Amino acid sequence: MSRSSRAASKRPWQDIAKEAQDHRDSTINQLSPPLPPVHSNLPSNITGIPRILLDSGTISITQLPPEELLQSLLSGRLSAVEVTTAYLRRSGLAQKLVNCITELLPDRALSRAKELDEYFQTHGKPIGPLHGLPISVKEHIGISGLRYTTGYVSFWGKIAQEDAHILQVLSRAGAIFHCRTTIPQTMMHLETDSNLYGITVNPYNSAVTSGGSSGGEGALIALRGSCLGIGSDVGGSIRSPAANCGVYGLKPTAFRIPTDGWGYMMAGADCVDSVLGPLSTSIEGLKIFVKTIIDAKPWLSEPALTPMPWRDIDVGGENGGRKLKIGVMWHDNVVLPHPPITRALQTVTSKLKENGVEVVDWEPYLHDEAWAIISSLYFTDGGASDSESINSSGEPWRPLSTWIMKENSCVKELSIGELNYWLEERESYRKEYAKVWNSTGSGFDENGDLIDVVDAILCPVGPGVAPKHNTAKYWFYTSQWNLLDYPAVSFPVMRVDKEVDVKPKRFKPMSGLDEENWNLYDPETFHGLPISLQLVCRRFEDEKVLGILEYMTELTGLPFESFDS
């Protein structure tokens, strides 16, 4: 911990939290003209409020998907200042509605936008492929001269000395960073709540969570305060908020996207690879983000990265003219998903079959053992470092911090021998799962390539839609793919309908965890919430998983209901 961090931790934690929130509010108050006032008695669903309170120009700009917005910026139809101003205003309003940002960056963003506009006027061309595109940034990703706390009060004095590598790459491509988004205490929640900033709520219903740990990003993008943002994922932290908030989110394969310069407790020594990745209002936004970064060859300055160029994937050509083959995982043999999730799986599966896609059932392989492995590797010091970071400031433990570290029987301080054991278990499980995937094919051709193997797995993102606050305790549907290091993308499908997604009168749970999960199902509360699913491919098939989702979307008309805020 830095000297400034130790000094900050001696102050009452409440004083630091107030300073954090006052600073955030002051950055929003810099907007001119001021934002319209927001009524204190808000409805539970606030997704329609921005259209009421903001001017038509701001709405028209911020409703554009990133690919269309970029075309307007790259052609000069819209200026960087116009676009940045619109997103600053909409993200500032989003904060007042759902508590999703830690600070607005109006001075930096507008100064950068003016530079870009001047360059365009002088040279008659954009500075790069992301010229003028506003991108929101999860708070623990370092921005030079700004704090990054990783959700701890004791880290309030921690200042980034330079921009994180990913921001350097995106900035050279012309991106503008207009705001920073909320994260939870410890960063290890599928909820976004901290003592610094409080709880980030779901735009569709304030009684449920926006997800975590990138929940600020999920909520902000759902409200169109950003069309493209940066999250991180070690157990579901991109896919959970994307799914809960009805947007798109990609967990890439580890070591394809730069991570130098972020705040993460076990950075450099973690046994489960955490990744940075995008959340967006469109599939194309995810693709633009990843391709731009990989095309910049970031491995030349961050040697840990895999030197793998971007590959354009033609789903038809990739499959040699044969049918696309999708494996559907209806459940993980531990917890049965709630009715809305099963209905979404059935609907997508039916649409795929109608359009000539081969669909087979996917038999999950020991997903409960996968959780035992990954949760044993999350806190190899028994949670000592995280506990010290919480306790040193005197801040209280948030409920899900207590659950993941103090109530999780797998969290133990590991000896060298025990650590080696769990690392060997991780590698053995990865080999076993590869065998399971290979077995879905019909053999090998003369070149040794698998024939007729499953191309991707369609599965739940979680055991239900966005859960009520402090109840997101089942990670298996996302952490599974972190353990295997498979790329996975979450995408919106439809909405909960309480008249259709009824709770069955008779239910026989598969496990104690299943019974706990079914006790959480409340169709009345969940009515109208986004239902999302997840598509998974094998390691380093990031381009393929996006290509298949894009193909599925064109084929079936996904999503089947509007998610336009």
TrEMBL record:
The keyword 4Fe-4S does not apply. Residues 82-546 form the Amidase domain. It comes from Zopfia rhizophila CBS 207.26. Residues 1-37 are annotated as: Disordered. Residues 12-26 have a biased composition (Basic and acidic residues). Belongs to the amidase family. This is amidase. Keywords: Hydrolase. It catalyses: a monocarboxylic acid amide + H2O = a monocarboxylate + NH4(+). GO terms for molecular function: amidase activity. Its EC number is 3.5.1.4. InterPro entries: Amidase_CS, Amidase_dom, AS_sf. It comes from the Eukaryota. Gene3D superfamilies: Amidase signature (AS) domain. Substrate binds at M187, S213, V234, G235, G236, S237. The keyword NAD does not apply. The active site is at K138 (charge relay system), S213 (charge relay system), S237 (acyl-ester intermediate).
